[in-house]
Amino acid sequence: MQTKLTKLEKYWILYDVGNSAFTLLISTIFPIYFNSLSAAAGVEEVDYLAYWGYATSLATLIVALLGPVLGTVADNRGYKKKLFAGSMGVGIAGLAVLWVPSSWLAFLALFLLARVGYSVSLIFYDSMLTDVTEPQRMDQVSSYGYAWGYVGSCIPFILSLVLVLFYEKLGITVQAAMGAAFLLNAVWWLACSLPLLRNYRQKYYVEKRQQQVIRSSFRQLWQTLRKIQEKKKIFLFLVAFFFYIDGVYTIIDMATAYGSALGLDTQGLLVALLVTQLVAFPSAVVFARLAKTRDTGKLIRVCILAYTAIALFAIQLDRQWEFWLLAVCVGLFQGGVQALSRSYFARIIPAENSGEFFGLFDICGKGASFLGTSLVSVTAQITGSANSGVAVLAVLFVIGFLIFSRVQKMA
To answer: What pLDDT sits at residue 125?
Structure first.
Protein backbone atom coordinates (compact mmCIF):
# COMPACT_ATOMS: atom_id res chain seq x y z
CA MET A 1 0.00 0.00 0.00
CA GLN A 2 1.29 3.43 -0.97
CA THR A 3 2.24 5.57 2.04
CA LYS A 4 3.53 8.78 0.43
CA LEU A 5 1.07 11.40 -0.70
CA THR A 6 0.63 11.82 -4.46
CA LYS A 7 0.94 15.26 -6.06
CA LEU A 8 -2.82 15.50 -6.53
CA GLU A 9 -3.44 14.56 -2.90
CA LYS A 10 -0.99 17.27 -1.85
CA TYR A 11 -2.72 19.86 -4.05
CA TRP A 12 -6.07 18.88 -2.54
CA ILE A 13 -4.63 19.23 0.98
CA LEU A 14 -3.15 22.61 0.02
CA TYR A 15 -6.63 24.03 -0.57
CA ASP A 16 -7.41 23.20 3.06
CA VAL A 17 -4.33 25.26 4.00
CA GLY A 18 -5.71 28.18 1.99
CA ASN A 19 -9.35 28.19 3.07
CA SER A 20 -8.46 27.47 6.71
CA ALA A 21 -7.02 30.98 6.92
CA PHE A 22 -10.54 32.28 6.36
CA THR A 23 -11.92 29.83 8.94
CA LEU A 24 -9.46 31.10 11.53
CA LEU A 25 -10.40 34.72 10.82
CA ILE A 26 -14.08 33.87 11.32
CA SER A 27 -13.42 32.58 14.82
CA THR A 28 -10.94 35.29 15.86
CA ILE A 29 -10.46 38.66 14.19
CA PHE A 30 -13.85 38.97 12.46
CA PRO A 31 -16.00 38.92 15.62
CA ILE A 32 -13.59 41.23 17.45
CA TYR A 33 -13.67 43.74 14.58
CA PHE A 34 -17.45 43.41 14.41
CA ASN A 35 -17.61 43.98 18.16
CA SER A 36 -15.73 47.26 17.77
CA LEU A 37 -18.06 48.40 14.95
CA SER A 38 -21.21 47.44 16.86
CA ALA A 39 -19.93 48.97 20.13
CA ALA A 40 -19.29 52.26 18.31
CA ALA A 41 -22.93 52.15 17.17
CA GLY A 42 -24.16 51.55 20.73
CA VAL A 43 -25.07 47.85 20.37
CA GLU A 44 -25.19 45.92 23.68
CA GLU A 45 -22.76 43.03 24.24
CA VAL A 46 -25.45 40.34 24.47
CA ASP A 47 -27.11 41.69 21.29
CA TYR A 48 -23.72 41.76 19.53
CA LEU A 49 -23.26 38.04 20.29
CA ALA A 50 -26.80 37.33 19.06
CA TYR A 51 -26.42 39.31 15.80
CA TRP A 52 -23.18 37.52 15.03
CA GLY A 53 -24.91 34.21 15.64
CA TYR A 54 -27.89 35.17 13.47
CA ALA A 55 -25.59 36.15 10.57
CA THR A 56 -23.76 32.84 10.83
CA SER A 57 -27.08 30.99 10.92
CA LEU A 58 -28.38 32.87 7.86
CA ALA A 59 -25.25 31.98 5.89
CA THR A 60 -25.81 28.35 6.80
CA LEU A 61 -29.46 28.50 5.73
CA ILE A 62 -28.50 29.94 2.33
CA VAL A 63 -25.91 27.19 1.81
CA ALA A 64 -28.47 24.59 2.91
CA LEU A 65 -30.81 25.79 0.16
CA LEU A 66 -28.15 26.09 -2.56
CA GLY A 67 -25.80 23.26 -1.63
CA PRO A 68 -27.69 20.09 -2.58
CA VAL A 69 -28.77 21.47 -5.97
CA LEU A 70 -25.32 22.81 -6.85
CA GLY A 71 -23.76 19.57 -5.64
CA THR A 72 -26.06 17.61 -7.95
CA VAL A 73 -25.16 19.90 -10.87
CA ALA A 74 -21.46 19.39 -10.06
CA ASP A 75 -21.80 15.63 -10.62
CA ASN A 76 -22.28 16.31 -14.32
CA ARG A 77 -19.12 15.83 -16.33
CA GLY A 78 -17.01 18.99 -16.46
CA TYR A 79 -19.06 21.02 -13.98
CA LYS A 80 -17.38 20.40 -10.62
CA LYS A 81 -14.21 22.40 -11.25
CA LYS A 82 -16.15 25.34 -12.73
CA LEU A 83 -18.53 25.56 -9.79
CA PHE A 84 -15.66 25.14 -7.36
CA ALA A 85 -13.73 28.01 -8.97
CA GLY A 86 -16.79 30.28 -9.05
CA SER A 87 -17.81 29.83 -5.42
CA MET A 88 -14.20 30.08 -4.25
CA GLY A 89 -13.87 33.34 -6.21
CA VAL A 90 -16.92 34.80 -4.45
CA GLY A 91 -15.45 33.91 -1.06
CA ILE A 92 -12.03 35.36 -1.83
CA ALA A 93 -13.47 38.57 -3.34
CA GLY A 94 -15.76 39.06 -0.34
CA LEU A 95 -12.84 38.63 2.05
CA ALA A 96 -10.64 41.04 0.08
CA VAL A 97 -13.14 43.95 0.42
CA LEU A 98 -14.43 43.16 3.91
CA TRP A 99 -12.46 46.04 5.42
CA VAL A 100 -14.33 48.66 3.39
CA PRO A 101 -17.60 49.03 5.41
CA SER A 102 -17.61 51.29 8.48
CA SER A 103 -21.15 50.21 9.44
CA TRP A 104 -21.63 47.00 11.45
CA LEU A 105 -24.66 46.07 9.33
CA ALA A 106 -22.77 46.49 6.03
CA PHE A 107 -19.89 44.46 7.46
CA LEU A 108 -22.29 41.65 8.33
CA ALA A 109 -23.73 41.72 4.79
CA LEU A 110 -20.28 41.37 3.18
CA PHE A 111 -19.30 38.72 5.71
CA LEU A 112 -22.44 36.82 4.73
CA LEU A 113 -21.43 36.90 1.04
CA ALA A 114 -17.87 35.76 1.74
CA ARG A 115 -19.03 33.01 4.07
CA VAL A 116 -21.55 31.64 1.58
CA GLY A 117 -18.90 31.53 -1.17
CA TYR A 118 -16.48 29.80 1.17
CA SER A 119 -19.03 27.25 2.40
CA VAL A 120 -20.32 26.40 -1.08
CA SER A 121 -16.77 25.87 -2.36
CA LEU A 122 -16.31 23.26 0.37
CA ILE A 123 -19.18 21.18 -1.01
CA PHE A 124 -17.25 20.69 -4.24
CA TYR A 125 -13.90 20.43 -2.46
CA ASP A 126 -15.06 17.72 -0.06
CA SER A 127 -16.64 15.75 -2.90
CA MET A 128 -13.30 15.85 -4.77
CA LEU A 129 -11.92 13.45 -2.15
CA THR A 130 -13.35 10.51 -4.11
CA ASP A 131 -11.50 11.73 -7.23
CA VAL A 132 -8.09 12.51 -5.75
CA THR A 133 -7.46 9.36 -3.69
CA GLU A 134 -8.47 5.74 -3.10
CA PRO A 135 -11.04 4.55 -0.49
CA GLN A 136 -8.39 2.94 1.74
CA ARG A 137 -6.44 6.24 1.87
CA MET A 138 -9.37 8.56 2.58
CA ASP A 139 -8.91 8.69 6.37
CA GLN A 140 -5.24 9.61 5.96
CA VAL A 141 -5.71 12.21 3.21
CA SER A 142 -8.76 13.80 4.87
CA SER A 143 -6.96 14.03 8.23
CA TYR A 144 -3.83 15.50 6.66
CA GLY A 145 -6.03 18.12 4.96
CA TYR A 146 -7.29 19.35 8.30
CA ALA A 147 -3.89 18.94 10.00
CA TRP A 148 -1.96 21.02 7.46
CA GLY A 149 -4.88 23.42 7.26
CA TYR A 150 -4.54 24.13 10.97
CA VAL A 151 -0.81 24.76 10.97
CA GLY A 152 -0.67 26.43 7.54
CA SER A 153 -3.38 28.93 8.39
CA CYS A 154 -1.27 30.11 11.33
CA ILE A 155 1.19 31.81 8.96
CA PRO A 156 -1.17 34.49 7.59
CA PHE A 157 -2.95 34.61 10.95
CA ILE A 158 0.23 35.52 12.87
CA LEU A 159 1.05 38.19 10.29
CA SER A 160 -2.52 39.48 10.64
CA LEU A 161 -2.18 39.57 14.43
CA VAL A 162 0.96 41.68 14.14
CA LEU A 163 -0.92 44.16 11.96
CA VAL A 164 -4.04 44.27 14.13
CA LEU A 165 -2.39 44.34 17.57
CA PHE A 166 0.49 46.69 16.73
CA TYR A 167 -1.06 48.99 14.13
CA GLU A 168 -0.23 52.09 16.18
CA LYS A 169 3.46 51.21 16.34
CA LEU A 170 3.36 50.56 12.59
CA GLY A 171 1.97 54.06 12.10
CA ILE A 172 -1.32 52.99 10.48
CA THR A 173 -5.00 53.15 11.45
CA VAL A 174 -6.95 50.16 12.72
CA GLN A 175 -9.00 50.12 9.51
CA ALA A 176 -5.82 50.08 7.41
CA ALA A 177 -4.50 47.24 9.55
CA MET A 178 -7.73 45.28 9.08
CA GLY A 179 -7.67 45.96 5.34
CA ALA A 180 -4.11 44.68 5.04
CA ALA A 181 -4.98 41.59 7.11
CA PHE A 182 -8.04 40.75 5.02
CA LEU A 183 -6.15 41.26 1.74
CA LEU A 184 -3.24 39.15 2.98
CA ASN A 185 -5.54 36.25 3.78
CA ALA A 186 -7.39 36.59 0.48
CA VAL A 187 -4.11 36.35 -1.46
CA TRP A 188 -3.04 33.37 0.67
CA TRP A 189 -6.33 31.58 -0.03
CA LEU A 190 -6.02 32.21 -3.78
CA ALA A 191 -2.37 31.14 -3.99
CA CYS A 192 -3.08 27.85 -2.18
CA SER A 193 -6.01 27.14 -4.52
CA LEU A 194 -4.25 27.45 -7.88
CA PRO A 195 -2.41 24.07 -7.92
CA LEU A 196 -5.66 22.16 -7.35
CA LEU A 197 -7.48 24.24 -9.98
CA ARG A 198 -4.78 23.50 -12.54
CA ASN A 199 -4.45 19.77 -11.89
CA TYR A 200 -7.85 18.46 -10.77
CA ARG A 201 -9.77 16.20 -13.13
CA GLN A 202 -13.24 14.85 -12.38
CA LYS A 203 -12.80 11.07 -12.23
CA TYR A 204 -16.32 10.08 -11.19
CA TYR A 205 -19.32 11.74 -12.81
CA VAL A 206 -22.66 11.25 -14.50
CA GLU A 207 -22.91 12.03 -18.19
CA LYS A 208 -23.85 15.64 -18.79
CA ARG A 209 -27.54 16.26 -19.29
CA GLN A 210 -27.57 18.10 -22.59
CA GLN A 211 -30.60 20.28 -21.89
CA GLN A 212 -31.93 21.96 -18.76
CA VAL A 213 -29.11 20.91 -16.44
CA ILE A 214 -30.54 22.80 -13.48
CA ARG A 215 -34.06 21.40 -13.87
CA SER A 216 -32.84 17.83 -14.33
CA SER A 217 -30.54 18.29 -11.32
CA PHE A 218 -33.53 19.33 -9.21
CA ARG A 219 -35.34 16.21 -10.41
CA GLN A 220 -32.34 14.01 -9.58
CA LEU A 221 -32.01 15.58 -6.14
CA TRP A 222 -35.70 15.06 -5.42
CA GLN A 223 -35.40 11.39 -6.40
CA THR A 224 -32.39 11.01 -4.11
CA LEU A 225 -34.18 12.66 -1.19
CA ARG A 226 -37.12 10.28 -1.69
CA LYS A 227 -34.83 7.25 -1.82
CA ILE A 228 -32.33 8.24 0.86
CA GLN A 229 -34.49 6.86 3.65
CA GLU A 230 -34.06 3.47 1.96
CA LYS A 231 -30.29 3.96 2.34
CA LYS A 232 -30.65 3.83 6.10
CA LYS A 233 -26.96 3.97 6.94
CA ILE A 234 -26.41 7.14 4.91
CA PHE A 235 -29.64 8.72 6.17
CA LEU A 236 -28.97 8.02 9.85
CA PHE A 237 -25.35 9.14 9.55
CA LEU A 238 -26.50 12.49 8.13
CA VAL A 239 -28.97 12.92 11.01
CA ALA A 240 -26.30 12.08 13.60
CA PHE A 241 -23.76 14.30 11.84
CA PHE A 242 -26.24 17.19 11.80
CA PHE A 243 -26.47 17.19 15.57
CA TYR A 244 -22.90 16.57 16.68
CA ILE A 245 -21.15 18.67 14.02
CA ASP A 246 -23.57 21.55 14.70
CA GLY A 247 -22.18 21.61 18.22
CA VAL A 248 -18.58 21.44 16.99
CA TYR A 249 -18.95 24.32 14.55
CA THR A 250 -20.93 26.44 16.96
CA ILE A 251 -17.99 26.25 19.37
CA ILE A 252 -15.55 27.12 16.57
CA ASP A 253 -17.67 29.97 15.18
CA MET A 254 -18.62 31.62 18.45
CA ALA A 255 -15.63 30.98 20.72
CA THR A 256 -14.16 34.48 20.42
CA ALA A 257 -17.59 36.13 20.40
CA TYR A 258 -18.43 34.15 23.56
CA GLY A 259 -15.19 35.12 25.29
CA SER A 260 -15.62 38.78 24.31
CA ALA A 261 -19.19 38.81 25.64
CA LEU A 262 -17.85 37.51 28.97
CA GLY A 263 -15.39 40.42 29.04
CA LEU A 264 -12.22 38.31 28.70
CA ASP A 265 -9.00 39.90 27.44
CA THR A 266 -9.04 40.19 23.63
CA GLN A 267 -5.34 39.49 23.09
CA GLY A 268 -5.55 36.47 25.39
CA LEU A 269 -8.48 35.09 23.38
CA LEU A 270 -6.59 35.43 20.10
CA VAL A 271 -3.46 33.73 21.42
CA ALA A 272 -5.55 30.94 22.98
CA LEU A 273 -7.22 30.22 19.65
CA LEU A 274 -3.83 30.21 17.95
CA VAL A 275 -2.84 27.52 20.46
CA THR A 276 -5.95 25.58 19.36
CA GLN A 277 -4.60 25.50 15.80
CA LEU A 278 -1.15 24.39 16.90
CA VAL A 279 -2.55 21.62 19.12
CA ALA A 280 -4.96 20.50 16.36
CA PHE A 281 -2.12 19.82 13.88
CA PRO A 282 -0.41 16.90 15.68
CA SER A 283 -3.76 15.70 17.01
CA ALA A 284 -5.22 15.35 13.50
CA VAL A 285 -2.11 13.45 12.37
CA VAL A 286 -2.46 11.10 15.37
CA PHE A 287 -6.09 10.40 14.45
CA ALA A 288 -5.00 9.66 10.87
CA ARG A 289 -2.57 7.06 12.15
CA LEU A 290 -5.06 5.61 14.62
CA ALA A 291 -7.57 5.18 11.79
CA LYS A 292 -5.18 2.72 10.11
CA THR A 293 -5.56 0.24 12.97
CA ARG A 294 -8.74 1.36 14.76
CA ASP A 295 -12.35 1.47 13.64
CA THR A 296 -13.13 4.95 12.29
CA GLY A 297 -16.61 4.93 13.82
CA LYS A 298 -15.26 4.26 17.31
CA LEU A 299 -12.81 7.13 16.96
CA ILE A 300 -15.63 9.47 15.93
CA ARG A 301 -17.63 8.46 19.02
CA VAL A 302 -14.64 9.22 21.26
CA CYS A 303 -14.49 12.72 19.74
CA ILE A 304 -18.22 13.31 20.28
CA LEU A 305 -17.96 12.31 23.94
CA ALA A 306 -14.98 14.63 24.37
CA TYR A 307 -16.96 17.53 22.89
CA THR A 308 -19.86 16.79 25.24
CA ALA A 309 -17.46 17.25 28.16
CA ILE A 310 -16.09 20.45 26.59
CA ALA A 311 -19.60 21.93 26.28
CA LEU A 312 -20.42 21.08 29.90
CA PHE A 313 -17.17 22.70 31.05
CA ALA A 314 -17.88 25.86 29.01
CA ILE A 315 -21.19 26.43 30.84
CA GLN A 316 -19.40 27.80 33.92
CA LEU A 317 -16.47 29.45 32.08
CA ASP A 318 -15.67 32.94 33.37
CA ARG A 319 -11.88 33.11 33.66
CA GLN A 320 -9.06 33.51 31.17
CA TRP A 321 -7.23 30.29 32.14
CA GLU A 322 -10.44 28.31 31.69
CA PHE A 323 -10.74 29.64 28.15
CA TRP A 324 -7.13 28.55 27.50
CA LEU A 325 -7.91 25.07 28.79
CA LEU A 326 -11.02 24.98 26.61
CA ALA A 327 -8.96 26.01 23.56
CA VAL A 328 -6.45 23.18 24.10
CA CYS A 329 -9.21 20.57 24.56
CA VAL A 330 -11.01 21.72 21.40
CA GLY A 331 -7.73 21.45 19.47
CA LEU A 332 -7.22 17.85 20.61
CA PHE A 333 -10.45 16.60 19.04
CA GLN A 334 -11.42 19.17 16.40
CA GLY A 335 -9.42 17.73 13.52
CA GLY A 336 -10.28 14.14 14.35
CA VAL A 337 -14.05 14.55 14.33
CA GLN A 338 -14.03 16.70 11.16
CA ALA A 339 -11.62 14.62 9.10
CA LEU A 340 -12.88 11.17 10.04
CA SER A 341 -16.51 12.19 9.52
CA ARG A 342 -15.65 13.38 6.00
CA SER A 343 -13.78 10.21 5.04
CA TYR A 344 -16.38 7.95 6.73
CA PHE A 345 -19.12 9.55 4.64
CA ALA A 346 -17.08 9.42 1.42
CA ARG A 347 -16.78 5.64 1.80
CA ILE A 348 -20.50 4.94 2.26
CA ILE A 349 -21.81 6.98 -0.70
CA PRO A 350 -21.72 6.23 -4.47
CA ALA A 351 -18.61 7.95 -5.88
CA GLU A 352 -20.28 9.13 -9.10
CA ASN A 353 -22.83 11.09 -7.05
CA SER A 354 -20.33 12.52 -4.56
CA GLY A 355 -21.23 16.14 -5.30
CA GLU A 356 -24.91 15.50 -4.70
CA PHE A 357 -24.33 13.63 -1.44
CA PHE A 358 -21.71 16.07 -0.18
CA GLY A 359 -24.22 18.84 -0.88
CA LEU A 360 -26.43 17.14 1.71
CA PHE A 361 -23.41 16.47 3.94
CA ASP A 362 -22.39 20.11 3.96
CA ILE A 363 -25.87 21.28 4.96
CA CYS A 364 -24.95 19.76 8.29
CA GLY A 365 -21.20 20.07 7.98
CA LYS A 366 -18.39 22.53 7.51
CA GLY A 367 -19.51 26.09 8.07
CA ALA A 368 -22.99 24.86 9.07
CA SER A 369 -24.01 25.66 12.62
CA PHE A 370 -27.53 26.93 12.01
CA LEU A 371 -29.24 25.14 14.87
CA GLY A 372 -26.41 25.57 17.38
CA THR A 373 -25.75 29.27 16.76
CA SER A 374 -29.47 30.05 16.74
CA LEU A 375 -30.05 28.22 20.02
CA VAL A 376 -27.05 29.90 21.66
CA SER A 377 -28.16 33.34 20.42
CA VAL A 378 -31.81 32.98 21.46
CA THR A 379 -30.95 31.49 24.86
CA ALA A 380 -28.37 34.23 25.54
CA GLN A 381 -30.90 36.97 24.74
CA ILE A 382 -33.73 35.38 26.73
CA THR A 383 -31.64 34.73 29.85
CA GLY A 384 -29.28 37.69 29.49
CA SER A 385 -26.36 35.28 30.05
CA ALA A 386 -23.85 34.07 27.45
CA ASN A 387 -23.06 31.04 29.65
CA SER A 388 -26.64 29.81 29.51
CA GLY A 389 -26.52 29.75 25.73
CA VAL A 390 -23.67 27.23 25.72
CA ALA A 391 -25.62 24.70 27.81
CA VAL A 392 -27.75 23.63 24.82
CA LEU A 393 -24.69 22.35 22.94
CA ALA A 394 -24.24 19.38 25.29
CA VAL A 395 -27.73 18.20 24.30
CA LEU A 396 -26.78 18.30 20.59
CA PHE A 397 -23.70 16.14 21.23
CA VAL A 398 -25.65 13.54 23.22
CA ILE A 399 -28.30 13.22 20.48
CA GLY A 400 -25.59 12.91 17.81
CA PHE A 401 -23.74 10.26 19.79
CA LEU A 402 -26.83 8.10 20.30
CA ILE A 403 -27.83 8.18 16.63
CA PHE A 404 -24.28 7.56 15.40
CA SER A 405 -24.00 4.58 17.76
CA ARG A 406 -26.99 3.12 15.92
CA VAL A 407 -25.27 3.74 12.56
CA GLN A 408 -22.25 1.78 13.80
CA LYS A 409 -24.40 -1.26 14.43
CA MET A 410 -25.56 -1.35 10.79
CA ALA A 411 -23.74 -3.39 8.15
So the answer is: 95
